[in-house]
TrEMBL record:
Pfam families: DUF1684 (PF07920)
Signal peptide range: 1-23
Keywords assigned: Signal
Protein name, per record: DUF1684 domain-containing protein
Length: 209
């Protein structure tokens, strides 16, 4: 996925994001949504099996059977409103290493989950903005109470594209782990404190440790 420092998986990652575009912009019925999540999981597993793209060390990749996922849950597929922030200045985001890539705050997603109003800040990588075809990529890193036992301790990521409408679908079933969850050779953004959710997100990739 795009927010990990080594960009060896661009093609498969790009396909994953394109496949998610429909799920982001259209409110899918439960059956269609479930099919879209299965397709996302299959693409992600294919990336992890591919020796040219996988973040897994060779021994783990050879034994790889598939990522563990929480059961697909339609309740974690929520409508969100994106409040644009066009005044935010670039900043250096902390990572799992000394690297501090430049990001900017693109806006804030407002949504309701389990009856609770919540928000997440959406970021845009300045490096990716300069790459042809990636100018509309958005990045949502977050943490939640499942981290460290049910999901990876360092938090998870969701990829979005810049929407044509401020209303979009936010799908936590597509939450995935940073590559540094599998190997220290990667440098991964650390989810900022303001993106700490107070509710448990039992959707997306689970912890396998």
């Amino acid at each position: 996925m795009f927010s990990n420092f080594r960009f060896s998986g661009f093609l498969v990652a790009l396909l994953c994001v394109f496949a998610s575009a429909h799920a982001q912009t259209a409110h899918l019925a439960p059956a269609e949504h479930a099919q879209s999540v299965v397709a996302f999981q299959q693409e992600l597993n294919a990336e992890y099996r591919n020796p040219h793209e996988s973040p897994l060390p060779p021994a783990e990749r050879k034994a790889f059977k598939g990522l563990p996922f929480f059961p697909t849950d339609y309740a974690f597929y929520v409508e969100a409103t994106l409040e644009r922030d066009s005044t935010a200045l670039p900043f250096r985001m902390k990572t799992s290493t000394a690297r501090e890539p430049e990001y900017r705050k693109y806006g804030v997603l407002h949504f309701t989950l389990n009856g609770q109003p919540l928000q997440l800040i959406v970021y845009q990588s300045l490096d990716l903005m300069r790459k042809p075809g990636y100018g509309d990529y958005l990045f949502v890193p977050f943490t939640d109470p499942t981290n460290g036992h049910e999901s990876y301790g360092g938090g998870r990521y969701i990829d979005l594209r810049i929407p044509k409408s401020p209303v979009l679908m936010l799908d936590f079933n597509r939450a995935y782990n940073p590559y540094c969850a599998y190997s220290p050779k990667y440098s991964c953004p650390v989810p900022p404190a303001e993106n700490r959710l107070p509710v448990a997100i039992r959707a997306g990739v689970q912890s396998d440790h």
